[in-house]
Design goal:
By secondary structure, the chain is of the alpha/beta class. The chain contains 19 helices and eight strands.
C-alpha cells in the first residue's frame, strides 16, 4: 500500500508520510520522567492527537499509559459529578477493552472492571481513591493522557477534577498518584476558567497551576519537511530539488503541520498532465498554494469563527494587515495571547505578526470581501490604490512575482 500525505485525523507511520518525531518524543519523555503535569495546547490541526498516539508507543516500555479522549462526549457527561466520574471510569475501561494499554497488569484491569460493573464511583473522592488503587497496584508508574479537553470547557466539574488531581499531585510523596498527566487541546487550561464565568472579566486562576510549561516546538522545520519529501521521493522514485522545495513550502506555511501536508497532498494528487518532476518544483508549490487559498476547509472556517468570537483579536489582526501597525508580542495582552493560542499570530523579533503567508492572505481576503459587502471602502476606490489588490481581492500572482519569499 502506498503511503499518502494525511490531513485528516491521526497520522500513522506505516500509512502516511510524516516528519521525524523522535526529537519531540524524547523532549516529552523527559517531562514525564521528571514527573511533570502539563498541557499540550496548540492550534487546530497541529498534530496533537498524532503526537499523543506516538507517545503511547514511546513510553510504554517503562510506563503504564492510559490515553483517552473527550471527543464526541455529550454535555450530559459533564453536567453532574456522578456522570463525569462514571465517564472517566468507562473511558479507562474502553482503553483496556480495545487493547490500547500495552502490557497492563491484571490487578489494574480488575480495579477498573469492578468500578464500571458495580457503578460505584459516584464522586471525585471515590474517583481519587480508585486512581490511588490503580497507581499503587501497577507494577510501574502510570501516565494519563486526555485528548480533546476543550470538550470539557464550560463545565465546572472538569475544573473540580483538575483540582482533585492537583491535590493528589501535592501529596505525591505519601500517596500513589499518576507519574504524569498530559492534557491536549486548543485552549490553555487557564482559558477554561475564563470560559465558564458568566461575567466579562478575564480570569486566569486555575487549579492547573501545578502544570509545567510545554515548550516543545511542534511546527515543522525546513529540515523536517525535507526529510518527509525524501521519504516520498524514494518511495515514488521521483527526482526533485528536495531542499529548495522544502524551503519554498516552509516559506508559505512557517511549518504549520496541516498546511505543509495539504500543499504536499495537492501536488501529489493533482498533477494533471504534468510529470512528477514538473509538479515537485517551486512552480508546483505555487500552484498548490493558489488552490489552497481558494478551497474551503475546517481550518479556515474556524479562523473566521474565532475572529468573530474575539473582537479584540479581530481589531489587532486588521490593524496589522491594513494599517501596518506594530504590536509587541506580549502574551499578557489578551488578544495577542488568544491569537497565538489559535495559531494566527506569531513572534517575529519581539513583534506580533500573522503566523504565515497563507493565513495572511486568507485573512486579507476575508476582510476585503467584508468591506466589499458593506460597499464602503470598495465604492470609494480606495482598494484599487493598493498595488496588491486586483478586482477587490489580494493578487497572489503579483505578490509572487514581486516579492522575494
Amino acid at each position: 500500500m502506498n503511503r499518502t500525505f494525511n490531513i485528516i485525523g491521526t497520522c500513522y507511520p506505516e500509512e502516511h508520510y510524516m516528519v521525524d518525531m523522535e526529537r519531540r518524543l524524547k523532549e516529552i519523555e523527559k517531562l514525564v520522567d521528571d514527573r511533570k503535569y502539563f498541557t499540550i495546547n496548540r492550534a487546530r490541526q497541529y498534530g496533537k492527537t498524532t503526537l499523543l498516539n506516538l507517545m503511547v508507543q514511546h513510553l510504554s516500555s517503562k510506563y503504564l499509559v492510559f490515553s483517552v479522549s473527550f471527543e464526541g462526549l455529550g454535555d450530559s457527561a459533564f453536567e453532574k459529578e456522578a456522570s463525569f466520574c462514571g465517564m472517566i471510569c468507562k473511558l479507562l475501561y474502553d482503553a483496556i477493552r480495545y487493547d490500547e494499554v500495552p502490557s497492563i497488569e491484571d490487578s489494574v484491569k480488575n480495579i477498573i472492571y469492578e468500578a464500571v460493573w458495580d457503578n460505584r464511583i459516584e464522586d471525585l473522592f471515590a474517583l481519587s481513591a480508585m486512581i490511588s488503587e490503580i497507581c499503587g497496584g501497577a507494577g510501574r508508574p502510570v501516565v494519563l493522557m486526555i485528548d480533546e479537553v476543550d470538550q470539557a470547557s464550560g463545565h465546572k466539574v472538569f475544573l473540580d477534577f483538575l483540582g482533585m488531581l492537583r491535590s493528589k499531585y501535592l501529596k505525591r510523596t505519601t500517596r500513589p498518584v499518576f507519574q504524569s498527566v498530559i492534557l491536549a487541546g486548543v485552549y490553555d487550561i487557564k482559558n477554561l476558567r475564563q470560559r465558564i464565568r458568566k461575567d466579562e472579566e478575564h480570569q486566569y486562576n486555575s487549579p492547573w497551576n501545578i502544570a509545567a510549561d510545554f515548550c516543545v516546538d511542534m511546527s515543522f522545520t525546513e529540515a523536517d519537511i525535507a526529510g518527509m519529501l525524501q521519504d516520498y521521493a524514494a518511495d515514488r522514485n521521483v527526482e526533485m530539488e528536495i531542499h529548495s522545495i522544502a524551503a519554498e513550502i516552509y516559506g508559505y506555511t512557517s511549518g504549520y503541520p496541516y498546511l505543509v501536508s495539504k500543499i504536499c497532498k495537492l501536488i501529489d494528487e493533482n498533477r494533471g498532465n504534468q510529470t512528477a518532476m514538473d509538479s515537485w518544483s517551486k512552480e508546483g508549490v505555487t500552484e498548490a498554494v493558489k488552490v489552497l487559498l481558494k478551497e474551503p476547509g475546517t481550518l479556515f472556517d474556524d479562523m473566521r469563527k474565532k475572529i468573530t468570537d474575539y473582537p479584540e483579536l479581530r481589531k489587532i489582526i486588521y490593524a496589522i494587515l491594513f494599517r501596518g501597525e506594530a504590536y509587541p508580542y506580549n502574551l499578557d495582552n489578551f488578544a495577542i495571547d488568544i491569537g497565538a493560542m489559535f495559531g494566527f499570530i506569531a513572534d517575529q523579533d519581539g513583534q506580533a505578526v500573522i503566523a504565515n503567508r497563507i493565513f495572511e492572505t486568507r485573512l486579507y481576503n476575508l476582510f476585503l470581501s467584508e468591506e466589499m459587502m458593506k460597499s464602503i471602502t470598495y465604492q470609494t476606490g480606495e482598494l484599487e490604490k493598493n498595488q496588491f489588490i486586483k478586482n477587490g481581492m489580494l493578487d497572489m500572482e503579483f505578490i509572487l512575482s514581486e516579492t522575494n519569499y
